[in-house]
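Risk register update: the risk of archive-format incompatibility is retired. Evidence:
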Amino acid sequence: MNPGTTAPVSCVAFRADGMRLAGGTQAGTVMVQETSDPSRPVTLTEFAHRSAVLAAAWNPGASDLLATGSADGTAAVWRVVDDRPPYLMKVLGGHPAAVADVAWMPDGQHLLCLLGDGRAAVWQAFGETYLGEIDDCVRLDVSPTGLVATVGTNGFVAVRDLAQDRAPLAGRAAPAVEACAWSPDATTLALARRDGTVELRNAHLDPIRTIRAGDSPLRSVTWSADGRHVLAGAYDGSVLAVDAESRPVWRLSDPTIRTRSLAVGGPVLATAAFAARPHLIDATSGKPFTPGLAPSTPATPTRPFRGAVLAAEGRVVTAGPPGARVVVVEHDLRVGAIDALADRVVVSAAHQAVRVARLDPAVLEVERGITLRAPEPVRTVALLGTPETTVVVAASHDVRLWSWTVDWTGPPAGPTLVGEFGAGLATLQRLDEHRLTATDHRGELAILALGADGALST
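Archived output:
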């Protein structure tokens, strides 16, 4: 499936006054909406990139300038004025990987481009001058005073003052961090973690407190405009607000919410979406402004198994009848997806860990287990093949589908990229041992089958 004009929204960014919202899509378009009435946003203009738009940021000093980042490795600066067509001012190219995020420095002249290979390029945007890079950087945020917070590959968090030096002013280990965001007053850094907590640290990275937001891995984090609440997005499609004492303010869960990107404009929270337009939510109450966006409770994954039930219960997978359940697999994080094959093989996914277990045919004991590392966090899983040669299929939280072949006699083969689905994948359902259906967030369905060579294709 290829992205089309209704491709998912990858990124969102509010202008400083909260009246203009930019959204980039997998199809390579950028839309700018007028949001003074968030229940009726009006699209003012759209313009195109050559590839998926992954990032957007309005210039803090010039309200008509918008920076964007693309999957083709380019960043661009556009002049976007209401009464005339958008104008491409600058193109910052030559990056060796996709531009996954862009962030302006407070001077409105320097632009940081976060690259998919774990570095951030530093540019003087209007002179098109490359100034160097920040190593070990997979997420970043810039404070209103110009401090740059970065999260590294292994969770190392650093704070830099780029106006003085690219060397860190402070650095601390913070394992399992997925995202970071400065408070509006620039005094506090929020760190979103895979264990469902938010750490608050000061500008020297000294711990302030830890806030429990839930048990689902968090993907993104920001703050309410007044700085009173931390707003976070979880991989399971939930967005939530909590106060500094871990008290929940609101929570909204919907499968079409794509928590890859969050943005706050005054009282409104925007999210990326598996839909043609961003989702808009009241940041104070959690009430959705977007029609059709409705609260839901994420279902507990269950499957029939040996005349009873296989179920994910927090970090463990259990099997058996009520009152006699047995733990068959245990993870470090909450299990988000499971499947079973021939009452013999069980697969479960918790974030990027995919564990496959072949059970004894007579009792609920694991004969052999294998842990696979998915290239990206997993939304749902399915099994094909036989207990002797098993094919594990995993859909990411974004648009990609991966597979491994496990013959239980040696190392697994994979991961293999099966394909990319324009609207992401919501469910996988096995039809028989060689075929499954993949349904995207628009309800469109594709049938995938194992070939004679063991490869999975549509």
